[in-house]
Amino acid sequence: MTNLYVPKLTTIKSIVTENGANDIKTFELVFKDDNDLNEFKYIPGQFAELTIFGKGECPIGIASSPTESGSLKFTVKKMGTVTAALHNLDVGSTVGIRGPLGNSWPVEAMKEKNIVIVGGGFAFSTLRSLIEYLIADEYRSYYKDITVIYGNRSKSEVLYKSDLERWQQRNDINVVLTLDRAEDGWNGKVGFVAPIVKEVAPSSENAIAVICGPPIMIKTSIPELEALQFTDEQILSSLEMRMKCGVGKCGRCNVGNKFVCADGPIFSRAELKQMPGEY
Amino acid sequence: MTIQAQNDDIVNNVKDIAKRLLEEGSVDLIIGYTKGTIPLKAPPFFVKKPEDVERLTWDNLGYTNLAKYLLVKRKKKIEDKEVDLKVGIIAKGCVGRAIVQLAVEKQLKRENVMIIGFPCNGLIDTKRIEKELSGKEILNASVQNDEIIVKGKDFEKIYPFEEYTMALCKTCKNRTPLVLDVLAGENNNTTVMDDFFDVTTMEAQTPEQKWEHINGVLGDCIRCNACRQACPVCYCNLCFVDQNKPIWFDKTFDRADIFVFHLIRSLHLAGRCVSCGACYGACPVGIDLNVLNRKLEKLAKERFDFVAGTNIETLPPMMAFKMDDSQEFMVEE
Amino acid sequence: MNEKILLKEKISDVFDALKGENDIIAPVKTDWGIEFRQIENPEDIALDYLNSKVPPKAIWLPKVETLYEYEIDGKDVKIKTPPEKLGKKVIVLGIRPCDAHSIKILDTFFKQGSFEDDLFQKRKENLSFIGLGCNSPRETCFCTSVAGSPFNKQDVDVFLTDLGEKYLVETISDNGEALIQQLPWLEDSSEADIELAKEQERLAEDSIKTQVNLENTSKLLDNNFYNAVWDEISATCLGCGSCSFFCPTCHCFDVIDENDYANHRGRRIRVWDTCQSPLFTLQTSGYNPRTSQKERCRQRLEHKFCYYPENYGIVGCVGCGRCIAYCPVNNDVRDIIAKVNNIEPRTEEAGKT
Asked: Would you call A81 an interface residue with chain B, using a CB distance cutoff of 8 Å?
């Protein structure tokens, strides 16, 4: 009966440390009950509330794509009590999960369009989900050109290194990686994300741009997209807000007449402009 | 002088001074009390324009400790530089004490505050009156001569003023601020020492009686934190209630959680509480646990000869250490 | 629907007749005011009251509610949902029309979206309301300004009108009909009774002095989010949250894990919370989009009088006036709406982001 607030149980199957500072890890979770797995149908961009029993719950974007069946991946940075507790868990530990929650990247509306994906830092996790979905065998033909621009402060902070390598080897997706500063052994571009967006200059014609990253990156990159004639309806972003219930009932994430956990977290720039600046 | 006459005096003096200060530019803002939209309320009121001083009142209903509003940094721009606003506070004794305590604790700059002290003649215990009226609606209330006259749709009740003042006002020895800049009236402080009779009465009770009293008083707490929000010396950026590293206790309405909140908050106020009763005034369910704070005030006086908010030079006991401080709790003396 | 008469001295008979399958909740006198409590002894029922301090929302939105319990066993976890006590039916006797209406507003909110809050729904399904018309609305009441009235009968199952020594009993819903059938000893009413009841209704509506004009408020609130009027409105607000706790339509809650570390178990609960708390929107990074009391004060008012109308077409307020009565600094919502209504019309608000 209390399905809304009771988590399903999963086991940690694998843990991958994503960065040199050792505070970002990707957890692969497997449902204990197969029924739960079958019911968990999600679309890239959605998130789930992860419960660390004995500590609490936190909302994390789903990093895996629904095309990667059998397990779910979450990339989590150690920030507070709950995420720190998650980082202390081993393979085999139990994690609760409630989801999928929130709206998603509009993969239907994106069909027949060129997709531009701009990401920075560790906000890339739901972008990974989107990319894997778009290039999956059963879906790739629906989408036109896919351009990915992904920036980081340093090489050790780049997430999903093996996935990036795999994508770069494909010829149906253009992956441009950049670092803030040059480093030994780095073959990609050097520069902040905003000037790289300008340089790559993806066309805004029949395109949708998806942007996720630290506030400063978003603040500087959006003008570049606007200069390329991207309209407010063409630019999408994923919002972060303090959340508790994750299902639009507790009122915490209410901004304007929207609930970030239920009406979002993905909003177009046009929608964001309608909302008061309380996010 | 009757209470009513005293109040008229106070209000006239306060208005004159407030107007003058605003006109001269000695202050940018004056904070006092004004008439409420419903009976028995006198909300805080911010005056920026001299003509608005007409709305300032004093009718024994100003529960809010106005010093609380000094915790907000207020600035103005003078030729591109940001400068602190000078704020005038219409201060009864306990408000003055709170300002001094905050100055000593470095939460405000004394030079930015103009303490306009006045001789307070006590606050009406409106919660007691409401309780005795058992939910009947009060349509009109006033103090005439020395009586509180309360009228409703089909009743009129008269309460003797002295008896129906707040408990803390009855034991108050500090009605006019000791530290002030301007005095609106005549100092009405008594030289009678505080005998802490309210505290000694409870000290004489058995533990069971004390437990029953506190239990009874705290029974209705809804953990709204109004007491904390209203208290001028509660200003922690992250209150112990809200900490989650570690979580000290839970946010439920369990007896244990309610107790812990009130007892620890009292302890955090040890030697700092100025007995203004703003907590009681703000509490929507009328909890008055000030006997605990008074007990701690008694201890501060006995052991450290300290009374909060009476001297701008002296550090409170929890902020200073003297070689002859009492150590009987850990050393045999 | 035949109107019946219930003599006041027979209230305990009503209690005895209905208590079998139901929990009866009614106003009782407590030390500090009228409260809605579960009745064990019908002598405690105090229907001669204006309104309770705490609204009866604690009946359908408990102050503390256990969502589930868990036990940790090494790396494994067992989850237990608490035993359902929700099966028992609840009759709220003597509820005022404003409080009865509040559950409709809450229902509109909890129903929307892709998830339905079954805890709330289950409690709501088990509720019956025997409403009581307000012969003497308070000075602070303004239900008529928010699509309500002191004799609004739409949201209850049975409606009582106080006629002095007796109540006129009107059956409103099928559920109400079922209740009335358990009271076959109710007397018949007379024309005079019905006339008197109508008279009470007329007097009551006329006596509501406060009119709050909400015609343009939603639009004004939408267009003036950054207006300086908010500095004035929020200047004295202490952020205590009393307004939220006493409001029948405030529903925000906190979800907390209570952990019994020593025994490797715990429970997840939800408790009443308020957007007035500084912690409400504080993020783990330390960033807080609502940094000061001004933003938080604004949020509550915008939510009730702007976002609710925008999302659901109704105002999120029943005009009960409790926030006016219990605000420690007398922030009066009627004055606040008037201030908003008086904002000078201006051209397009400069950039919102």
From this structure: yes
Nearest CA in chain A to C292: A278
Please name which of A198, A156, A164 lies closest in space to residue A181, comparing C-alpha atoms: A156
Q: What pTM did the predictor assign?
A: 0.90
Decide which of A41, A66, A101 is a domain's last residue. Answer: A101
Q: Please indicate whether, in this complex, the C-beta atoms of C252 and A6 are within 8 angstroms of each other.
A: no
Is A242's CB within 8 Å of C281's CB? yes
Q: Which domain holds residue B305?
A: 197-319
Which residues in C lie closer than 8 A to residue A239 (C-beta atoms)? none
Q: Supply the range of the domain harboring residue A131.
A: 114-238
Domain total of chain B: 1
Residue in B284, A278, B69 with CA at minimum distance from that of residue C234: B69
Q: ipTM, 2 decimals?
A: 0.89
Interface test with C, best of A93, A242, A273 (most C CBs within 10 A): A242
Say whether C140 and B38 touch across the interface (CB within 8 A): yes
Residue B241 lies in a domain: yes
Cβ proximity of C241 and B226 under 8 Å: yes
Chain centroid, CA A231 distance in Å: 22
Tell me, yes or no, whether A173 lies in a domain. Answer: yes
Same domain (yes/no): A56, A121: no
In this structure, the answer to whether residues A44 and A22 fall within a common structural domain is: yes
Q: Do C70 and A273 touch (CB under 8 A)?
A: no
Can you give the pLDDT of all 353 residues of chain C as single tens digits? Answer: 579 999 999 999 999 999 888 899 999 998 778 899 999 999 999 998 989 988 999 999 998 999 999 999 988 999 988 766 666 899 999 999 999 999 999 999 998 888 888 889 888 999 999 999 999 999 999 999 999 999 999 999 999 999 999 999 999 999 999 999 999 999 999 999 999 999 999 999 999 988 999 999 999 999 999 999 999 999 999 999 999 999 999 999 999 888 888 899 999 999 999 999 888 998 888 889 998 999 999 999 999 999 999 999 999 999 999 999 999 999 999 999 999 999 887 654 444 43
Q: How many domains does chain A have?
A: 2
Q: Indicate whether A141 and A229 sit together in one domain.
A: yes
CATH code at position A23: 2.40.30.10
Residue spans per domain, chain C = 4-207, 217-341
Q: Which residues of C touch B224 (CB under 8 A)?
A: 240-242, 245, 274
Cβ atoms of C123 and C60 closer than 8 Å: yes
Q: Could you tell me which residues come within 8 angstroms of residue C203 by beta carbon, excluding any fewer than 6 positions away?
A: C135
B53-112 residues touching C, CB cutoff 8 A? 63-64, 68-69, 72
Please say whether the beta carbons of A58 and A50 come within 8 A: yes
Q: Which helix (H) or strand (E) holds C13?
A: helix C11-18
Whether residues A21 and A76 fall in one domain:
yes
| Contact call for C136 and B137, based on CB within 8 A | yes
* Residue reference for tokens 């982001």: C353
Q: Which of B46, B131, B153 comes nearest C32 by C-beta? A: B131
Please report residues of C whose CB lies closer than 8 A to that of B229.
Answer: 238-241
Query: Are A21 and A94 contained in the same domain?
Result: yes
Spatial contact of B164 and B124, defined as CB atoms under 8 Å apart: yes
Which residues of chain A make contact with C123, given a CB cutoff of 8 A?
Answer: none
- Does residue B175 fall inside a structural domain? no
Question: How many angstroms separate the CA atoms of B5 and B185, rounded?
Answer: 12
Residue numbers in B near C329 (CB within 8 A): 43-44, 64
